[in-house]
Specification:
The chain is built from no helices and eleven strands. The chain is mainly beta and 117 residues long. Strands 2, 4, 5, 6, 9, 10 and 11 form a seven-stranded mixed sheet that branches. A hairpin with a 6-residue loop joins strand 5 and strand 6 (57-59).
Length: 117
């Protein structure tokens, strides 16, 4: 397994979760990391990203100011900190490591996040 996502679970509205995306190889530091989510009956949606090197982040409008993406290249792990969670954040969350030049394109297996009272 090249990438493994974890940290999902059941949380009440307004709560927080932190997802992790752990890589098994040195490709991690060469990769931009993307977080996606897919809710039942909906298309996969890009949540946000963090670049290699400068760790520049970008977010979908729906999660801006609530979610934060970070990375620790020494631990080969990326994180998605989710605060002020809403029912509509319920989805399976996936991480993706991408570097087209080096032909890196790995996906984690997905982790379920359920926001419900």
């Amino acid at each position: 397994v090249q990438l493994q996502a974890s940290g999902g679970g059941l949380v009440q509205p307004g709560g927080s979760l932190r997802l992790s995306c752990a890589a098994s190889g040195s490709f991690f530091s060469l990769s931009d990391i993307y977080w996606y989510r897919q809710a039942p009956g909906k298309q996969r949606e890009l949540v946000g990203s963090i670049t290699r090197g400068t760790s520049t982040t970008d977010y979908a409008d729906s999660v801006k100011d609530r979610f934060t993406i970070s990375r620790d290249d020494a631990r080969r792990t990326a994180y998605l900190q989710m605060n002020s969670l809403k029912v509509e954040d319920t989805a399976v969350y996936y991480c993706n490591a991408l570097n087209e030049y080096f032909r890196i394109d790995y996906w984690g297996q997905g982790t379920q996040v359920t926001v419900s009272s």
